[in-house]
Description:
Layout: E1 2-6, E2 13-17, E3 31-32, E4 39-47, E5 53-60, E6 65-72, E7 84-95, E8 101-111, E9 117-120, E10 132-137, E11 142-148, E12 164-170, E13 181-183, E14 190-195, E15 208-214, E16 227-229, E17 240-245, E18 253-261, E19 274-277, E20 292-295, E21 301-306, E22 319-325, E23 338-339, E24 352-357, E25 365-373, E26 386-389, E27 394-404, E28 412-418, E29 421-426, E30 433-437, E31 445-446, E32 457-463, E33 466-471, E34 478-482, E35 490-491, E36 504-510, E37 513-518, E38 527-531, E39 539-544, E40 550-556, E41 559-564, E42 571-575, E43 582-583, E44 597-604, E45 607-613, E46 619-625, E47 633-634, E48 640-641, E49 646-651, E50 657-662, E51 669-673, E52 682-687, E53 694-700, E54 705-710, E55 717-723
Antiparallel strand pairs: 1-2, 2-3, 4-5, 5-6, 7-8, 7-10, 9-12, 11-12, 13-14, 14-17, 15-16, 15-18, 18-19, 20-21, 21-24, 22-23, 22-25, 25-26, 27-55, 28-29, 29-30, 30-31, 32-33, 33-34, 34-35, 36-37, 37-38, 38-39, 40-41, 41-42, 42-43, 44-45, 45-46, 46-47, 46-48, 49-50, 50-51, 51-52, 53-54, 54-55
Amino acid sequence: YVAWVDGRDGSSDIYLQKFNTDGIFQWTNDLKVNYGSNTASLPQLAVDSSGKLIIAWQENDGSNDDIKAATFGTFTSTPTASVPLRVYGTKTIGKDAGNNDIYKFDDNSFITDGAGELNFNGSDQPKIEWDSYHIEIIDASYQLWQTEPLLPINVKPGTPNNPITLILKQTNAPRQITDLNLTNPTENSMKLEWTAPGNHGNIGTASSYDLRYSTSTINSSNWNSATPFAINPPLVADSEETATVTNLASDTAYYFAIRTTNSDSEVSVLSNIANRKTEKETIAPAVVSNLTAVGNSTTSIVLNWTAPGDDANVGTATSYDIRYSTSTINDGNWATATQATGEPAPLVAGTSQTMEITGLNPITTYYFGLKTSDEVPNVSNLSNIANAATLGAGWSQPQLTAVRNLSSNIAGAKIQTQGNYVYIIKASGNPNFIIIDASNPDNPTELAGALNLSGTLYNIAVDGNYAYIASSDNNKELQIINITNPNSPSLVGSGFDVTGTNDAVGIYKKDSIVYLTKTVISGADEFFVINVVNPSSPSISGSLNLSGSPREVVVLNNYAYIASSDNSRELVIVSIASMPPTLVTPCAVCNLAGNDNGLTIAGFDNTIILGRTNGISNGYLYLFDVATPTSPTLITTTPYNGQNVINDITFSDDHKYAFLATDYDSAEFQIVDIATSPSTPVMIGSYSSATYDFNGIAYNVGQDRIYLAGDDANNELVVLKPQQ
């Protein structure tokens, strides 16, 4: 390449020419690089790795020097005569009432002259009266090669010193594909056939194809928005080419077109536009045959199934139609079944899917069916019919299942359950220790082998083959009962005399140790740790004097927690990691506001539940976090008010609910949610006996039953279950 400064047009311009290695001109005409009347100088040339020429020069507009640059490809064509083209022009001729421009539009047809140029100016083309213009080349095998000056330009009439020159050249790009044809349509594919063009025109082998498709016709204006599809590089010119476009939608009209690019990066004219519809899909998704339903709440049921495919068990379907009814579903009543909302989108065939159907009625059996559709839509046959029942309201609506009048006509005091048996004590009477067979929890039976134990019986713990009783008998404060044979229980030995004359009131058994509390007597210990590894020969491992009158006791890990009447320490914490036991002090949260007494206590994990009462009208429930027993924290900011004395506490297996035995006339049994908001527990259900209170409570996890000790001589045992 050679560039130079040339004054042939009366100004200093940059021209460019290409020579071969023999010094022969390669271009018919020298190429003028710059445009306009500015003075150009100092041209510099470089060629990049792809063979593209880069030229830079200096240009002066009379006041400033600018550096300009341009790039050029490989030019192999020459200006061509008699090429038809059209020139469009617009001119502003005024304003409308809204101050918007009004345009005049001209449409002029021309052909290039013998030199392959079109020249016009204001003097010899008086029709040209434009503010701006653009050009349309009629024959797409030609391209606009050069304009002087550069597009766009304003053209004024009668300005011969500002001419426009348009030079067109015949492109050397691959020829246009004109025989693109579509064959063998399927549900999601189309085969294309055409004859390969050449690298230049119809000679050689082009470099690449650009195949695109759309659901509307394709032209040069919307080419970029059509979807590209990669195909193999071109074969040699005149070869028969084929390609199959996949992943199309069924029963859909598609339009296809191709452009070809050669080794000089010249691009062919857009091919003919071929269009055809894909076939309508006829294979429906497979039938779901493993639909299952599980009721997991009072108002919802969870469905599970394996996703079928778009075509039988292949691919991914489009949608599900899930319906349900309170009677079985079949094809005949499918239309009247209730359609679910919010069905999940199908996943790829073989994937497990699930959906929860909500808004159902409690304790109701529902039937479910499912159909699957593809995009056509082809609809599967009805699935297997699954059914499940919603749950009852659970413990929010406890149901009475049994009431028993036990021997001796004395009110029940405390109660425990283990396996299929219930153990109840009475403060007095004969018998005052009774075992009930609760194999059928809704029809419990009192066994004959009851016992008459000495003293007033205050509390009971059951573990394995033994029951442990806290008694007022000064010589037998701890009485151990062998319950190996529930029909024939027996007192082990003659009872164990715990030091002091104060009554035993609280008892808890863990491992081989019994933890026992006694009422307060000045100078006497009230808390005892008793080794019962040999039940016939208990021994005291340690004891501790407590202020106030202790009541019930519970043990978590290496600490005993005691409900106390001490107004400065309603919760007493004792370390039992080693003997003798020691009081945990200070304990800021152990002193609760007010003077109500600690009466009953229970615990699980790192949580202690304490019941307080003033013995008159109110009973309060508190939760403590004892993860650090030496520094416990009070969880409840607003204690739960049970409205009257809280006599006993237990809890559900998942620790979500605390179950309370109380003296409150309208709700002697109360269910309190302690999990949702532990800082403010709330009652979610209750049961009222209407005429008597409950003194003791026990929950049987395996049976999901509550056993209550009734404060009534004729209703000592009450059994409740959740609504199911």
